[in-house]
Amino acid sequence: MAPEKTLIRGGVVVSMDFARRVIHNGAVGFEGDRIVYVGSSGEVRASEYDKVVEARDSFIMPGLVCAHTHLYGIALRGAVLNIRPTSDFLENLQRIWWPLDENMDNEDAYATALAASMEMLLNGTTTFADTYSAPPNPEGSLEAIAKAVNEVGLRGVISFEATERRSVEEGERGLKENIRFLEKGGESLAKGMISLHASFTVSDELIAKGVEASKKYKAPLTIHVSEGPNDVYHNIERYGKRTVERLYDKGLLGPRAVLAHCVHLNRREIELLAATGTNVAHNPMSNMLNAVGVMKLPEMLELGVNVGLGNDGYVFDGFENMRAAFLVHRVDRRNPSVLSAQQVVETATVNAAKAYGLDGLGSLEVGKKADVIVVRPEVCAAPLSGNVYGYLVNGVRGGDVVHAFVDGKHVVNNRRLTLVDKEKAEQRVLKTVERLWQKLGDKPSEAVEPLRLVS
Fold this sequence. Notes:
It is a single chain. With about 450 residues, the chain is α/β, with parallel strands linked by helices. It has 2 domains: about 5-65 and about 365-415, Roll (Urease, subunit C, domain 1), CATH 2.30.40; about 65-355, TIM Barrel, CATH 3.20.20. Helices cover about 40% and strands about 20% of the residues. The protein contains 15 helices and 18 strands. Strands 1, 2, 3, 4, 5, 15, 16, 17 and 18 form a 9-stranded mixed sheet that branches. Strands 6, 7, 8, 9, 10, 11, 12, 13 and 14 form a 9-stranded parallel sheet that branches. Helix 2 packs parallel to helix 3 (about 140-150), helix 11 (about 320-335) crosses helix 12 and helix 12 packs across helix 14. The radius of gyration is 21 Å and the shape is globular. It starts with a strand and ends in a 13-residue tail after the last helix. About 55% of the residues are buried.
């Protein structure tokens, strides 16, 4: 049977291709999972297609690509935790995130991945890169997450966050879970990668093993870098060098590496990223939440560092994250022209796809994957024919996504998921998260083992 041919027409096509073409009254056609037409609505025959989706007063654009997330972070939404108020980022980790990690099991991994995947897809994100953490329970966790990803119908680059903060043995088990999932392979919307937590919780030996595995399996490698100042202080005290310098010396930097956050970097470190072709995942909303500071995005872009936009498991609406990135650097520099709207949209599409070697995603071009979203502002208060990037960054939210296609499949139709029963899934998620909250309440975070700073 021939694959179904679908045509989306009548909207403003924001291609994000090399020329950054914007086509008014444009159309995108795809056959099966591949795009076969990008151009004017007047130059394509609708009769040649099996399905026609009208997109008047709408943007037609590539699905958003989230460069860094923690799906299980959705379990903390609204949680009441029995903890002392935190005063810095490291205390946030020790009192909030790590107790959550240490209470997660594979059912929790599945349920939180299901919830976050549904929310991201409904808000226009069709691909994400996730790092999951549950040091006592790594085995089988990535299958649980992959199951949720495939059920919802979006793409995931998924990994287990190897850390030695409690023991060397748990770091080894975490890395082995990534390798096992990569070796399994197979046809799936969920692909694997290598993940290390951060340089202050992993040894040189574990870094070396992660780099070796990334090379062997030709897989991306991601690590949290200088999110808070403690990372910098740790590396200077233990190794006599800053975070990026240490990672450079250990051979981690390069085109397969994605460094999350990179808030506390100096000029020399940014130059190392540019010289090695290393990628960065920017998480502005999470950085504001944790009060860690503002990364030097303008300098990174100026020097040619590829930067993708992530959410770090906080707000799963990619348009809200774009808006935050657009605004925070303006107020940080007190300069209303420091960053363009087009640059921000690039971080959430082509740049994020490039960071993970996803050459077939991030733009609308003939031959690329048919991952497409249709976005109609809730109220069309201004013509869409003006500054489209400015409109997308300043006037659109995730709830404006009307349709989403992944691999050519219509996975969001008129703002409703098509592959999963959202209401039924919500009930399963709620039961699981309620049980997880009970576990957290039974064991206050101050009772967990103290941080083991590796040397």
